[in-house]
Amino acid sequence: MMKMKAFTVSEVTRYIKRLLSTDPIINNVIIEGEISNYIRHSSGHAYFTLKDDTSKIACVMFSQYVDLIGFSPKNGDRVHAKGQITIYERDGRYQLNAVGMENIGLGALHVRFEALKGKLQAKGYFDQAHKKALPLLPMKIGILTSPTGAAIQDILSVAKRRSNFSELLIYPIRVQGEQSKEEICRGINFFNERDDVDLIILARGGGSIEELWAFNEEIVAEAIYHSRIPIITGVGHETDFTISDFVADRRAATPSAAAEIAIKSKTELALELNKSIQRMSLIVSRRMELERSKINRFEPHQWENRASKIIELRRQRLGHSQDVFEQKIQAILSSEKEKLNVLATKIDSLSPFAVMRRGYGIVTKEGNLVNSINQVSENDSLDIRMIDGAMTVEVKNKRSV
Question: CATH number of the domain that 79 lies in?
Answer without folding.
Answer: 2.40.50.140
